[in-house]
Amino acid sequence: MIKKQVRLTLLPRFQMVSLLKLATITEKGVEFLSPHDGTPMLLTPEHSMSLQNSIGSDIMMQLDDVLVTTSPDAARMREAMERSVRWLDRCIAAHKKPESQNLFCIIQGGLDLDMRRECCREMLARDTPGIAIGGLSGGEAKADYCRVVAACTEMLPDLKPRYVMGIGYPEDLVVSVALGADMFDCVWPTRTARFGNAVTKHGVLNIRNKKFATDFGPLEEDCGCMACKPTTEGGMGITRAFVHHNASKETVAAHLLTIHNVYYQLNLMRQIREAIIEDRFPAFVRQFFAWLYEEKKDYPEWAAGALKVVGIDLQSE
Question: Which of 121, 149, 166 is the last residue of a domain?
Answer without folding.
Answer: 166
